[in-house]
Design goal:
2 copies of one chain form a homodimer. By secondary structure, chain A is an all-alpha fold. In chain A, 72% of the residues lie in helices and 0% in strands. The first copy, chain A, has 9 helices and no strands. Chain A is elongated. The structure holds a DNA duplex.
DNA sequence: CTATCAGTACCGACTGTTTGGTACAATATA
DNA sequence: TATATTGTACCAAACAGTCGGTACTGATAG
């Protein structure tokens, strides 16, 4: 494949990512992709065998991008800073998009989990890795005494991922980013990060 | 519309509810409904103006059923019993269905929120009422001293709803009901209900 | 320099099927 | 008979995907 072909392929993939994100897999027609990317049908099928294959590549690339996002957002001196930064990055992302499309993994999980095992596995791996990253942060926090020792980091990490996905879902249903914001605030409060107004649930300091 | 007609209509609605639940709105074709219910096309359109109208009625009835479920499951002598019973009922429901279709409101929220304002409003009202019911339980619990006074019942209620929806999502992605179960266990632990193994987060009794 | 050529990129008409929806005749029931 | 109910044939549009072909490109040979 030559440079020009690669660029065209990338253009399709970029457009497809956005449309699949916004409209879901079933909700996106090949015609939608043609309209959005300007790449004609014959050419599109020159680069991709099927809509399903294209969806899979969109999904795996989105996963890779998300892993990068995880690394970048879980930064900070102390574990609590890392979590706080993570939450802020998530909120910023969804507010920036005005909640449009929400989380592509959450969407596809609900749309495709019962219909496409390959898709489901990719999405599953996203949540596994997300949880693992957060669990590591929590373990460090527990070792350093920043968070109560009697907490199960695995369970807490899963709890965080679930609440974030649920918060996005609620925010989309209400068309109000505050729903997500306040879910994140409660999570932060749970671990004694910032937003003390919500109540402190972490290490009992008072 | 006579008795027989009403019965036919109900049969369509029942079948449509199950298929919309399992496959989503876009993922369900009229042909699917005909195959499932045995009601022929002309007859189907005798009772419903369009697929969208049918989806709306499915959704509003599901909402009414869910409100009944809320009442029935939030039963118990003490607030903590009510919440525990609620969580158990949710888990039992999804385990009984083997996670098939998950939560019809969560699914439709992600699928349709950006596409159909009417649907979104119905779903939104579900989450609002769900949150309200739980908030009332929490307020009672706070008044009775069962739960710490410094907690914001509104924020906590939203947190619970979000985590339940997120837990269902994770469980479907992993095909493992344990993901939901453990999210519910953490929530229970938060309010000092049962499952102490997860850690007690509620009123500090020890 | 330039004719040839293989491989890549690209195009739009076409296929068979499925879509949501309609028209209307046939049948059942009051 | 009159009306409610049901079944079948049908429709245009949309669907994912195919096909035969053209246009371009860079390398090679004369």
């Amino acid at each position: 494949m030559r440079d020009k072909g690669i660029r065209t392929r990338e253009r399709v993939l970029a457009g497809a990512t956005e449309i699949f994100h916004r409209q879901g897999f079933s909700g996106t027609s090949i015609h939608d992709l043609i309209r959005e990317t300007g790449v004609k049908k014959g050419n599109l099928y020159h680069f991709f065998r099927s809509k399903e294959e294209m969806g899979l590549e969109v999904l795996t690339r989105a996963r890779d991008d998300f892993f990068t996002f995880l690394e970048n957002s879980l930064q900070g001196d102390r574990p609590s800073d890392q979590l706080a930064n993570h939450f802020e990055s998530i909120l910023r992302y969804h507010e920036g998009r005005n909640l449009l499309g929400g989380c592509i993994f959450g969407n596809t999980a609900l749309e495709m989990s019962d219909r496409n095992e390959t898709y489901r596995n990719v999405i599953h791996s996203v949540f596994v890795e997300w949880r693992r990253s957060i669990r590591e942060v929590l373990e460090t926090a527990i070792r350093s005494g920043e968070v109560r020792k009697d907490l199960d980091p695995e369970a807490m990490a899963r709890h965080i991922v679930a609440t974030v996905e649920g918060g996005i879902l609620l925010a989309r249903a209400s068309r109000n980013p505050a729903d997500l914001k306040e879910c994140l605030a409660v999570l932060a409060g749970l671990f004694g990060i910032g937003g003390e107004a919500t109540g402190r649930w972490g290490k009992q300091t008072g």
